[in-house]
Design goal:
This protein is an alpha+beta fold. It has 14 helices and 19 strands. Bound molecules: flavin-adenine dinucleotide.
């Protein structure tokens, strides 16, 4: 890599240009998943869209790989690569809310924490991730599943338009009336088509929710899972939440002698009228005895950061994912076999409901194709000690193999591992060919290939 070219880049950008000689390099090259240890050539911490354009042009002209990073949560570590140019958007966190139109414009590197705080001030929210440190960028571009999905659709369904820097360095608007093909593709197609420097979202009136986690004994897990499967089919769309396999962390609401025990938990989020919350959750209180719970009214952003401490940066991650149409008894049996073996307090398995409003969007209306899946399952192996990686990965793979015969071929791209590239095509089903066409138009040389890649 020519030093003069890097010097020119450094002069061009308003943010930081970091190379291996800089003291900031070691910290700047790190991503959220500590299993990923790469040494990029240059890390550009962009201050705005102009910096993104400069970094894209630099990478293309220098024929270097490009890794794009927002919240840095990519489990396969797509936000970095050896010898690559990293376009780091983490300084681009601004979120502006227009309460008059119930919309928000957020810069491409914002986290859900920053986003939710800004919108909450106006009593508004949109579908986002369940951990506040996740980036809006990667999450929205892959689809976006969260507590509000049943009511308001996926995060990408709430996207009104976006500003995208394409591989040739142009700054384009993608929306219903501008570059419609690009707009279609970025709603589910991931980071394949360019760097999104800002996202415009539709917001909805959500201020306080009624919810939180409830812990059930393993012996009641089958009953709770079967109940959840039936209940969620026709539950009011204000009802969100998911069951999870979870080792009890040492939290005050859990009896001390149960810390470290494994439970089937249900995390509920009632986003309807607060006074109806208790009644909305009653069926879960009646299905089996609740060992411990932390349920009640709370600000929406509080639930969306409640589990942050379980997943700090620096853990080892290996994940797998499936879409599920019917959570059959056989599928539940597979969960009952592997769920109780969840290896660490950080690890978990979530079965997110994606019916309701998600189903009302046609499968070809956006790139996100699985509009008939009822659930998105993630098997998330996360723990601090690299020495345990082998066992952890084996648990994730065994769990996945056991549930795969009862699941769809595809899974949610954002929950998939780096070794799932061969599943990209099935994940997009009938939309895949159209995605390839859009890729050929906007990124014919596959500059943006460090992702679940759609090859031109
Ligand atoms: C702890 C944790 C919790 C999660 N919870 C949820 C959840 O509740 N719901 C859910 O749907 N998913 C969830 N995910 C998965 C999440 O959607 C993906 O990991 C996603 O890629 C994270 O986005 P990011 O911006 O933080 O990641 P990054 O690593 O920064 O980005 C991942 C990839 O997305 C693309 N990308 C990111 N930003 C941009 C941009 N502005 N322009 C162009 N491309 C971009 C790039 O290809 C990049 O390599 C979670 C992940 C983790 C680790």
């Amino acid at each position: 890599m020519a030093t003069t070219a890097v010097g020119q880049l450094r002069e061009q950008v308003r943010g930081e240009t970091i190379t291996a000689e800089d003291p900031a390099y070691e910290e700047a090259r790190r991503v959220y998943n500590a299993m990923i240890d790469r040494r990029p050539s240059v890390i550009v911490r962009c201050a705005g869209a102009d910096d993104v354009v400069a970094a894209v042009n630099f990478a293309r002209e220098s024929q270097l790989d490009v890794a794009v990073r927002g919240g840095s949560h990519s489990v396969p570590g797509f936000g970095t690569a050896d010898d690559a140019v990293v376009i780091d958007l983490s300084r681009m966190q601004a979120v502006e809310v227009d309460p008059g139109t119930s919309t928000a414009r957020a810069q491409g590197g914002a986290t859900w924490g920053a986003f939710n705080d800004a919108t909450h001030a106006h009593g508004l929210a949109t579908t986002g991730g369940i951990i506040s440190t996740t980036g809006i960028g990667g999450l929205t571009l892959g689809g976006g599943i969260g507590y509000l999905s049943r009511g308001f659709g996926l995060s990408c369904d709430n996207l009104l338009s976006a500003e995208v820097v394409t591989a040739d360095g142009r700054v384009l608007t993608a929306g219903e009336h501008a570059n419609e093909d690009l707009f279609w593709a970025i709603r589910g197609g991931g980071g394949n088509f360019g760097v999104v420097t800002s996202f415009d979202y539709q917001l909805h009136p959500v201020r306080e929710i009624y919810g939180g986690p409830m812990l059930f004994e393993l012996r009641d897990a089958a009953t709770v899972l079967r109940f959840y499967r039936d209940f969620i089919r026709d539950a009011p769309e204000e009802f969100g939440g998911f069951p999870a396999w979870q080792i009890a962390p040492p939290l005050p609401f859990i009896p001390e002698d149960r810390h470290g025990d494994t439970f089937l938990i249900f995390v509920a989020c009632w986003a309807g009228p607060l006074e109806d919350g208790e009644a909305a959750l009653k069926p879960f209180h009646e299905v089996a005895p609740v060992v411990a719970e932390h349920v009640g009214p709370m600000p929406y952003p509080a639930l969306n950061s409640a589990f942050d401490d379980l997943v700090p940066p620096g853990l080892q991650h290996y994940w797998k994912a499936n879409f599920v149409k019917e959570l059959t008894d056989e599928a539940i049996d597979a969960h009952l076999e592997y769920g109780p073996k969840v290896p660490a307090v950080n690890s978990t398995v979530h079965i997110y409901p994606i019916n309701g409003a998600c189903h009302r969007v046609a499968p070809d209306a956006t790139a996100f194709a699985y509009r008939d899946a009822t659930f998105a399952t993630v098997i998330a192996g996360m723990l601090p000690d690299p020495a345990e990686n082998e066992d952890n990965i084996a648990w994730v793979r065994d769990f996945y193999e056991a549930t795969a015969p009862h699941s769809e071929e595809g899974g949610y791209v954002n929950f998939m591992a780096g070794d799932d590239q061969e599943r990209v095509k099935v994940n997009y089903r009938e939309n895949y060919d159209r995605l390839v066409d859009v890729k050929r138009k906007y990124d014919p040389d596959n500059l943006f290939h460090l992702n679940q890649n759609i090859r031109p």
